[in-house]
Design a protein that fits this description.
By secondary structure, this protein is of the alpha+beta class. It is built from eleven helices and 16 strands. The protein has a seven-stranded mixed sheet with strand order 1-2-3-4-5-7-6, sandwiched between helices.
């Protein structure tokens, strides 16, 4: 069955799904209530305002082919205090079950956890919930020492290195079969930016790695964005040399600890996307960061790579103590849909704030997201 997965903690359908989850869960525990308003406060808050409760987390929804609204959801909690990320609130509406929706949600949650660099992911499940428990075990989760002492609650964990190795084996098999991969060269760059594959992986770049890729893959991504009309601080045509010089300055900021850089790599190590997180340096702003230069090559779009890059930066920001993120983007641009879908809130619009690559002044919308 075809299922569309999206990240959106503000989706109007989400409160209904979470409310149904908690009502059933309370009934199974012998504490049945008839309405969301009667749930314990901690659960009621999730059902009434999930965008506020899960502000630092990844909320995924699944919509079956031909349906108008999502039929299932899952939450990937951001890692905190050195603990592995945790999967919570897996729920599929009863009328949509046994169609692979839960498995699709879990697969995407695991993929995003691996993309964020996590070595493992964990979850809890009541021992009487046989179907979810069978699903988790089929995905490689194993029982571990309990971190939650409630009776009848099982604690499970999955090591993600196995998932990464499986992806590498898949790539090798596809290569052996002669699977074609479209590659697009940009300027004089030695490193090519390849079309997306399931093996695209997101990883943090060291300052030296940023310098090494500045004149090749990173410059190609920036030039491609400007050529595609993105308002990212440059006018067209953008020379590779100018793009490389900008990334060299970014490498210096990374070395100084004020900017973090993540890149998405294709199967051959080629770069398909990038995002940076800039930390405020003023004494009264050290709780704040800015998402800057979220770029996905035009040949790699349409497969959720932008969401993965953004989620990785958000998770790292939360794990390192930041509580607020900000960004700005051209008003009515495709990027706005991504940010709104990922739970960002528009703070306001400034007319004629920045020129587009053609030099025409355009409005800019400011966004923010609370992480804690």
């Amino acid at each position: 069955m075809n299922v569309t997965i999206e990240e959106n903690r503000s989706h109007p359908r989400l409160p209904d799904l979470l409310g149904a989850y908690h009502l059933v869960n309370q009934a199974e525990k012998g504490n049945a209530v008839t309405a969301v308003a009667e749930l314990p406060a901690v659960y009621r808050g999730e059902a009434e305002d999930p965008a506020a409760v899960f502000t630092a987390d990844t909320v995924l929804l699944a919509t079956p082919a031909g349906a108008d609204l999502p039929a299932g959801c899952v939450v990937l909690k951001a890692p905190r205090e050195g603990r592995a990320p945790e999967i919570k609130r897996l729920w599929v509406a009863p009328e949509a079950r046994r169609r692979g929706i839960a498995k699709a949600l879990m697969a995407e949650a695991l993929r995003r956890a691996a993309a964020s660099g996590a070595a493992a992911v964990r979850l809890t499940v009541w021992n009487w919930r046989e179907e979810p428990l069978a699903l988790y075990r089929s995905l490689g989760f194993e029982a571990v020492a309990s971190w939650d002492e409630r009776p009848d609650l099982l604690c499970l964990e999955k090591t993600l290195e196995r998932t990464a190795e499986k992806a590498r084996e898949t790539v090798r098999e596809e290569t052996a079969r002669g699977t074609a991969r479209e590659e697009t060269a940009r300027g004089t760059a030695r490193e090519e930016t390849a079309g997306p594959t399931d093996s695209d992986r997101v990883e943090r770049l060291t300052p030296d790695e940023v310098r090494a890729h500045a004149s090749a893959g990173l410059a190609a991504l920036l030039v491609d964005a400007v050529d595609g009309g993105a308002s990212v601080g440059f006018l067209a045509p953008l020379a590779v040399r100018e793009a490389a010089a900008w990334w060299s300055r970014v490498a210096d900021e990374a070395a100084g600890g004020t900017r973090d850089v993540w890149a998405a790599r294709g199967p051959g190590g080629t770069l398909t996307g990038v995002v940076t997180l800039v930390r405020a340096t003023t004494a009264n702003g050290r709780h704040r960061g800015e998402i800057a230069r979220l770029l996905v090559h035009r040949s790699a779009r349409g497969r959720g790579l932008g969401y993965r890059l953004l989620a990785t930066a958000e998770a790292h920001a939360a794990a390192t103590g930041l509580t607020l993120l900000v960004l700005d983007t051209q008003t009515d641009s495709p990027a706005e849909r991504l940010y709104r879908g990922a739970g960002w809130t528009a703070a306001g619009t400034i007319p004629d704030y920045a020129a587009d690559p053609a030099g025409v002044p355009r409005a800019t919308t400011l966004y923010y997201k609370r992480l804690g």
